[in-house]
Structures are given as C-alpha cells and as structure tokens.
Amino acid sequence: MTHPFLDRIKAGPLLCDGAMGTYIYARGGEMDGCFDELNLTDPNAVVNIHREYIAAGADIIETNTFGANWFKLEQHGLGDMVRDINFQGAKHARDAREVSGQPVFVAGSVGPTGRTLPPVGMMDPKEVRAAYREQISGLLEGGVDLLMIETIGSLEEMTEAIKAAREVSDLPIVAQMTFSADGRTISGQSVEDVAKALQDLAIDVIGVNCSVGPRGVMRVLRAYRACLPDDMPISGQPNAGWPTQVGDRLLYPSSPEYMGQFVTDAVNTGAQIIGGCCGTTPEHIRAMRSALDQRSGVTTTPRDVVIETPREQQVLLPADEPTGLGRKIGKKFVVAVEIDPPRSLNPEKVLQGAQLLKDAGVDAVNVADSPMARIRMSALALCYLIQDRIGVETILHFTTRDRNLMGLQSDLIGAHVIGVRNIIALTGDPPSLGDYPNATPVYDIDSIGLVKVLRAMNAGTDAAGSPLGRQASFTIAVACDPTRDDLEEESDRLYQKVSAGGHFIMTQPIYEMVTWTHFLEVYERRHGPLTVPVLIGILPLQSHRHAEFLFNEVPGIRPTDSARERMRLAGSQGRVEGVKIAQELLLEARDQVHGVYIMPSFGRYEVAASVLDALSHRDLTVALS
Hints:
By secondary structure, this protein is of the alpha/beta class.
C-alpha cells in the first residue's frame, strides 16, 4: 500500500518547518526546562507554534517530541509520561493542521537518547531500542503521518531507532544524521559510511540536520547525492548558523534571506526535503517558502486562500427529483466514505480528500456534524462545497443537539434549496463530551423525531402541518449500533426510525459480519423482516494501540477480540493488517447487505481508497432482495 507522503515527495521538493525548542526558548522558555512537557502543561503554545509554521508555508510540521524518550524525560521526573507526551504531541500537531485546513504532513520527531552505545559506550542497545519503541508507539497512536528520526550522531543509535520504528510501524521514515565541521558524525563516521549503512535499512529518506549551519549541510548534501542512487530522496535541515551567547540568550546569525538561498542550493543539489533546525523561526520558513516557489515558477499563495474548482463539477438536483444516491440504494452496492469538517476557516485539505475519494469511485461522501461535540466547520456548508467544487454527492449528518425545532427546519429547507438532500438523522453526542462541556444542548426532538420532520417535508409540510409550497425530496438515512449491549432496545429504536420514514440504514463500525447478523436476528424476532437497505460501517484499524483505544475509550466502536489480536500480531504492519481486515469484511458484506460506509481515522482518506481496491474487479450492479 502506498503512502501519500511517498507519493507527494515524487512530485517535487517539500518544505519542512523550523525549530521548536529554540523557538520556545526565544519566546521566553527556560533552556534547562523540558520543552516536551508543554504538550501536557501548555498545549495552546505548542499548537500555536505549529500554526505559525503552517501559515509560513511549511508542507511538513514536526511534533514537539524531540526529547520525548524515556532517557530524556526521566531526567525531569517524567519517565512514566512517555506515551502521554508523545500521543499529545501528535494530537496537537494534527489539531493545528485541522485548524489551518492545509494538507500538511505531521512528522513524529524522534531525537537522540543521550546515551552512548558500543563500541564506544557501554549502553545496552536493547534498552535504547526499547525506549525508541515506546516513544514511536505513542506517536503512532497519536496519528502521525511519518517519522523524522533526527540529530543522531552515531550509526549505532540510528540503527536501533530505525529497527524500533519498523517493529511497531510501517510509516515512512526520514533518517537524519548530524555531522561536525569536519564532515563526520560525532562517533566518527563519514558521509559515505552513513550513506552505505542507511541504504541497507528500511528507510525512505536519508538526510542531515542541525550540524553547523547551511554551508556545512550543503557539503553533506552534495556528498550524499554523489554516493547515493538517484532514486533515494535526501533531506537537509540546517541550523540558522552557529549560535553565540549574548547576555543570557542564544542568538543565531543566519537571516531568513540567507536560509532562502540555502533552499535554492539544496534543491539544485537534489534535496527533496528542505527545512530548518535550531535557531530557525517562522520568518525563516516564510523566506524559504518564497525561494522554493520562485524556483518552481509559482506565486506564493497566502495559506488562508482556497483554490476554486471548475463550476461545471457542481452537483445540483432538480427540486422534485430523488437524489442520485436515493436512486442507487438497493439497486447497486453503494460505497460511502466519511469526512470530518475542519476546525478552521479553510476547507482545502478536506476538499482534496473528497477529490481523492471521488477518483476512487465512491458514490457519496458523508460529512459529520461536529462529532464528539467538538467545534468544526458547518457540515452543511462543507457538503455544499464538496458538491459544488468536487462534484460528488454528500450525505449530511444532521443532529438535533444544537438546534431548536424552528432552526432545525430552517436549516433543512436551506439544505434542500442548495441541493444537499441526503440526510442521516442523528440525535448527536452530548456537549459534555466535547470542547464546551457547559454548552446547553437543545434536543427539542431526537433522531426519531427528526425522521418524522423529514418525512413531513417530503409530503410538502413542516412539522406543524403548514404547507411548504411543494414536496421535498430528501433521502433519509438512519443510524444503528449493532454492537450495543442491549440489542433489544437498539432494535426497538431502529424499528421506530424505519417506521417513521427512514429510507436506509447506516451502522456503527463492525469488524465481523456475525455482529450484524446477530443483531438482525434480534430485530426480526421482535419486528419481522427488515424492509430497507443497509450500509455496514467499516473503520480500518491503524495499529494495535489504535484498536485498544477504540475498544476502551470510544463509545459505539468495539473492535472484536479477533481483530484486536490480529492487530497485536501485526506489529509494525498494523496499517496493512487493518486494511486487510476491512477488505475481508467488505467482501463478506458484499453478498449480505447493500453497501458500506467507511470511516478512515486521522483523515487518512487514502486508507479508505485502499480498502476499496478489493472491489475493483467485482460486479457491483447486482441488486439484493
């Protein structure tokens, strides 16, 4: 399975962000403090720095976890917080990306342990590898896109870090060594020694960072390029020169303009990733972005501008006709994929995700309505943008949590007018779960009441029976959770939803078809045959930790014991195994239900596309009874 980062790096150079630690220090942090601890104690500061780098033009942002291994954290009495600090570091970077709306990659920053391995030192390599494994597992659980193992001064330690990464993950790895002014690592290896050794390990990019500034990094990049195959990407992230002590502060001499010149030289040498290390700031990255864009012949675009797509792609429906999805349900095997709206004013990343899903052949894109009661862009607005700019139908998740009966109907009328007419009726997660636990929920009606309102509109009236002037043409979906402990209660509620006017069912994620068939037996025993089509929910697992997190902490999602064990045994191949489990379920569901509803985690829409590869050679037009 390919990875978007590896696909993107083939298209042209990527700009990484600048320093985290020295930037925190420059803003008043204590040099002898633990910068990684800010992930727990001052998350807003970390998120804001990420946002500054994204706004400056970075394509990759690194998590605030450079020193978040056991050896480094234990020096601050935080040895038992490795998982939490790394998990939160990844989460804060992803939050910054969500707020920006930009399609940037989140790299898990993995720095040195500070221990010396044989043959020079006495540290047991197994302990070092275990420390890296613990750190990387936390980053993986937090949802990073790739790993940036950096500022490593010995091949022995780099080898242990890479092996640890491969034991728990199949994510892309950028391995960046640091070199002294004489062109050798701290442990004495030459650039050629490093290049030869790292080629034999399972990494994707070989690089250099920190070191002694742009000039020294350029020497290493030229040496790399001379001794590495042309198809091996290289990276360079220099310090902003050699620091000097002025009073009680460290100052770095390289100006943003000087770092911009480095970009030109590095790309001319063949570097595919360029960025900054110690002493660099968002101003340096902004200058580097400008230099990179000038070299590519493009105009630097402010990061809050959304690129328009052709108007002819828009999906608009005649007011009195059923939706395209409504015409397909029950006649072909339907595929829908969920997208979460961004936590920002910029929808560019999710629009790109919608385009990828359209290209993969999905029938509809689900748009969630502030899931887990966390503030996001209006789901209705995003549905319109996706249909207007990408040209694929949407299914709007519509909750009764935030609207009184009057506002709810007004929004539905507006949705109908702009062509958003596939609605899944939901009650919504309570505000107590989200960012504003003291917010007041409305709940004038629940999801069953919402289905009744939609049915009334399809008959031409509002909830009070007043005429709307014409009949609406909503296609109404209802939700079902076949994993609940009380299946009799769930089946009774589903019966009420279908009886109220639901046209088809979308389930919470399951991991074996027996989960659905068992629920169906309970339903039919109490209410007779199910009379509407069903789309089974599928949520691909990313890793063993991801499976355990969902099982233990997320309501309504219960990976089976078998799936959890498979993910445990998969180890570093968790993402691949998760797709395999999802594909097996998809093919089994193909002959028993009317479609699937895929929910990719962490906005990884390419994972949903990989799951759908299982259908590429199968007939999807056979109607089910």
